[in-house]
Amino acid sequence: MRLDRYLSKALGISRREAKRLVKSGRVKIGDKNKIAKDFSIKIDDEQVFVNDKPIEKPKEKIYIMLNKPAGFVSSTKDINPTVLDLIDHPRVAELFPVGRLDMDAKGLLILTNDGQFAHRIISPKYHVEREYEVRVSGSAENALKLTEGVKVGQHFFKAKKVEINRDVVRIVICEGKHHQVKLMMKAVGLGVVELKRVRIGPLTLDIDEGEWRELTESEVRRLMGA
Ligand code: URA
Fold this sequence. Notes:
By secondary structure, the protein is an alpha+beta fold. The protein is 18% helix and 28% strand. Uracil binds next to helix 4.
C-alpha cells in the first residue's frame, strides 16, 4: 500500500493531510533514522513511525452483501442462529451488520468491520434510501396513504415512494427505525406476511437467498456518497 494511503487509513486522516505529514519529515520507516521523503513509496511489512512513535498497521476494511433468509438474527451473538453463521469468510469475527433486519425478514443486509461506513449508512442525517418488497394481508391500496405519512407513537413515518402490485407493496423509506415497515403497514390496517429488503441507497440485491459476496470498491464509494 502507498505510504500516503497507509497513513490515511492508519491515522484516520485525509490523503492530503498524510502527504503533508510526510513532507513535514515527521514520518519514518523501518529504521527509525530513515525519514520518509516520498509519499508514494510502497509499504509492506515495514514499521511506520510518526513523531518517532510506531503506528498500528491499518486494518483492511471488509464490506459484504448478504441475502439474508428468514430465521437468522441480525446480530453478532445470540442464542438463535445469526447472520454471521451464513458467512464463510476468514475474518468473519470482525464483521457486524449495518443496521438490522428482523429475524423473520429477508433480503439485503450489509456487513462490515468499518464503523465510519456503517454510520454513513445508518445515520438518519444522510437519508439513505431503503427499498422493501412487502407481501401484505388486507387491502394493499391502503399503503398509498403512507406517502402522506402516518403517526406511530412519537414518530411520524412517511414513505418516499409506494407501488402496489396485487398483494405486494414496494415501499421506499429514508430511515430505518426498529420495525419501521411493519409499524407503517399496521398504521394503515395491513398485516405483513413477508418482508424483503431489496435495495440500500444505490446497492441492489443481486444474489440468491443465503448467499453473500464482497462489495466492489466502486459500490463502497457509491454507498459512501462519493
Ligand atoms: N422494517 C421492519 O419492520 N423490519 C425490518 O426488518 C426492516 C424494516
